[in-house]
């Protein structure tokens, strides 16, 4: 056994499945997880000293690359002054000011410790503000693991949601409806029917948790109009897209103003973080100002705030997003060209520096059922072939990949070289079956 395998067996003695988050178990791709010990720029090193070009980036936060000197220095200086005080600190205001200057729709913002906390709090706030109970979400979108959001579609769009996890009470799931992402007509019909009972519609403006699935033209606009028409709040879950697809997030990229926004990942620079923000009249309902309770021992932790602010400072560099987008385009176009050389059904979506690919001839993939019909067996072969060639992709066909500012020509060329070999293996192994 190599060191990762040894560590995995040891971890399983103390931690469920040996991991602190299920996707890390590699269960979906039929492999054993690598244990990593360090990261630098676009690269990770595992416990067997193998190096990998990393396209997970801690699931999005590492947009500037691993262990960026500016971020590490800022955190080291902050650490020397203490880790947490349970009292207000200036750095919390500094980060809030930085975020809201890039995302002006967030008139007020509250820091929390995870994306799950952010969306859970946003749902409670929407219910408190509107006095309504129903929540609408979309199939294939993931908003963290709070009960109200671990709900899948019932037999029909208007039927009661059903739990998407053991332990979620039917009574809670019944308050959530799950619609088809990118289905404008269904959305308009359902909101015409129950819009005046609906507290909020929550959406990933670019779905990143079923692979990467962008909104079709008009979907977000239709969503905004329907929510406004029926007095339901529109919540953009930008935990993944915030500061990823553009400095102002998807709301800036697509020009749609949500009522509330949730954030996470990049704004913490790799440390535990989440945030919810939005219209002042709504946010002023949060304790201590209003009657919607929300709290957290380590919310706004100064070390996290320093890591987040240092990361956002790096995004101010000239042409940061243009360069990142161009690098990602070279990657995705190269992957498509390599798959075409083997006549493989391969479809890839990209928004800025987040991407997702599917072994299907459907192009572009625009909804969950198309994702589910893609060839996950081919994905697993490709994933493992790439991993064994030193490319660390997301270990699931239902995740997105991320390129950082540290990824350069060399990393993209090496990735495409590995992909040509991996596609050859997919072809060979699929021909056997
Ligand atoms: P966390 O509670 O994991 O910080 O955030 C939940 C969340 C909320 N909203 C969106 C759009 C998200 O993508 C996430 C979490 N993303 C996953 C990656 N698909 C985290 C990885 C994991 O679960 O280990």
What's the CATH C level of the largest domain?
Alpha Beta
CATH superfamily of the largest domain: Type I PLP-dependent aspartate aminotransferase-like (Major domain)
Strand order of the largest sheet: 4-12-11-10-9-5-8
Low-confidence stretches: none
Distance between the termini: 29 Å
What fraction of the residues are assigned to beta strands by DSSP? 15-25%
Give the integer mean of the pLDDT values. Answer: 96
Radius of gyration: 21 Å
Q: Could you say which small molecules are bound to this protein?
A: ligand KE4
Q: What structural category do the secondary elements indicate?
A: alpha/beta
Count every helix, treating DSSP H or I runs of 4 or more residues as helices.
14
Helix residue percentage: 25-40%
Gross geometry: globular
Question: Strand tally, please?
Answer: 16
The largest sheet is: 7 strands, mixed
Tell me about this structure.
This protein has 14 helices and 16 strands. The protein has two domains: 3-63 and 319-432, Aspartate Aminotransferase, domain 1; 70-314, Aspartate Aminotransferase, domain 2, CATH 3.40.640. It is globular, with a radius of gyration of 21 Å. It has 433 residues and is of the alpha/beta class. The strands form four sheets. The chain has a seven-stranded mixed beta sheet, sandwiched between helices. A four-stranded mixed beta sheet has the order 1-2-3-15. Helix content is 38%, strand content 15%. The mean pLDDT is 96. The chain starts with a helix and ends with a helix. Ligand KE4 binds next to helix 4. Ligand KE4 binds at residues 21, 23, 59, 114-116, 119, 142-144, 204, 208-209, 237, 239-240, 264, 274, 399.
């Amino acid at each position: 056994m190599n060191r990762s395998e040894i560590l995995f067996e040891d971890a399983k003695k103390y931690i469920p499945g040996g991991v602190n988050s299920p996707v890390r178990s590699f269960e979906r791709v039929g492999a054993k997880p690598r244990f990593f010990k360090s990261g630098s720029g676009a690269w990770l090193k595992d416990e067997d000293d193998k190096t990998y070009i990393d396209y997970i980036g801690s699931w999005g936060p590492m947009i500037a690359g691993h262990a960026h000197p500016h971020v590490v220095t800022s955190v080291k200086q902050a650490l020397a002054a203490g880790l947490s005080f349970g009292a207000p600190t200036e750095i919390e205001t500094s980060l809030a000011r930085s975020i809201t200057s890039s995302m002006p729709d967030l008139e007020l913002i509250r820091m929390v410790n995870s994306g799950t906390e952010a969306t859970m709090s946003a749902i409670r706030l929407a219910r408190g503000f509107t006095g309504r109970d129903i929540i609408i979400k979309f199939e294939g979108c993931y908003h963290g693991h709070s009960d109200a959001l671990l709900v899948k579609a019932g037999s029909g769009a208007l039927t009661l949601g059903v739990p998407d996890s053991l332990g979620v009470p039917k009574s809670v799931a019944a308050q959530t409806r799950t619609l088809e992402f990118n289905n404008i007509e269904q959305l308009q019909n359902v909101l015409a029917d129950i819009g005046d009972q609906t507290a909020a519609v929550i959406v990933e403006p670019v779905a990143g948790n079923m692979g990467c699935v962008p909104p079709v033209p008009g979907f977000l606009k239709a969503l905004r109009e329907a929510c406004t028409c029926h007095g339901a709040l529109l919540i953009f879950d930008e935990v993944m897209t915030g500061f990823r697809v553009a400095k102002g997030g998807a709301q800036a990229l697509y020009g749609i103003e949500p009522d509330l926004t949730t954030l996470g990942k990049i704004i913490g620079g790799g440390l535990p973080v989440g945030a919810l923000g939005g219209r002042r009249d709504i946010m002023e309902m949060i304790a201590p100002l209003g009657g919607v309770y929300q709290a957290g021992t380590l919310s706004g932790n100064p070390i996290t705030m320093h890591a987040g602010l240092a990361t956002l400072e790096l995004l101010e560099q000239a042409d940061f997003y243009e360069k990142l987008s161009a690098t990602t385009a070279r990657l995705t176009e190269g992957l498509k060209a390599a798959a075409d050389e083997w006549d493989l059904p391969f479809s890839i979506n990209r928004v800025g520096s987040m991407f997702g690919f599917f072994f299907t001839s459907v192009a572009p993939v625009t909804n969950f059922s198309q994702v589910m019909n893609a060839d996950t067996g081919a994905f697993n072969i490709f994933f493992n072939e790439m991993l064994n060639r030193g490319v660390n992709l997301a270990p699931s066909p239902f995740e997105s990949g991320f390129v950082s500012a540290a990824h350069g020509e060399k990393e993209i060329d090496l990735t495409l070289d590995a992909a040509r070999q991996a596609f050859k293996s997919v072809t060979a192994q699929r021909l056997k079956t």
